[in-house]
Write a structure and sequence with these properties.
The protein is mainly β and 143 residues long. It has no helices and 7 strands.
Length: 143
């Protein structure tokens, strides 16, 4: 099992969420879905600016009903001045209808699995680039 929510900024300016239940088996659930128009946080023809610090915040929160998970993506373009000016660029609530399709029926026992109680993982991933720089990276759990 993978049990992972992803918050993504892509280099062409798109933002999205993914949910993965079993790594290497089947497709991840995506929002916006692959057959829907993409959601852009920067002009579509420009992509993410280069040589500028961009703040990225991914919030994953179990809602008070304990049956839904709120996903939010924020960006800050001020380099964190005065705490930053955090703009929400995407939101989605996983109520259990966000189905993960997988080969060989591996997800059939978990068709509406929301990732609520399993241990979490945090990582940064960059594809198809030679260099990336990060600063002020932090992880917080609020209970």
């Amino acid at each position: 099992g993978a049990n992972t929510y992803y918050g993504r900024f892509t280099y062409d300016g798109r933002v999205s969420f993914e949910k993965e239940l079993f790594h290497g088996h089947g497709d991840e659930a995506q929002f916006p879905p692959p057959d829907a128009p993409s959601h852009y946080a920067w002009p579509e023809d420009e992509g993410i600016p280069t040589n500028e610090w961009i703040g990225f915040k991914f919030v994953v929160k179990t809602l008070p009903d304990n049956g839904s998970v709120l996903l939010e993506l924020y960006r800050d373009l001020t380099d964190g001045r005065n705490g930053g000016d955090w703009e929400k660029v995407l939101e989605f609530i996983d109520t259990g209808e966000w189905y993960v399709e997988a080969e060989e029926g591996i997800c059939n026992d978990f068709p509406h699995n929301k990732i609520l109680f399993t241990p979490g993982f945090v990582f940064i991933r960059n594809d198809f680039i030679d260099e990336a720089e990060y600063k002020n990276f932090s992880i917080r759990e609020i209970t």
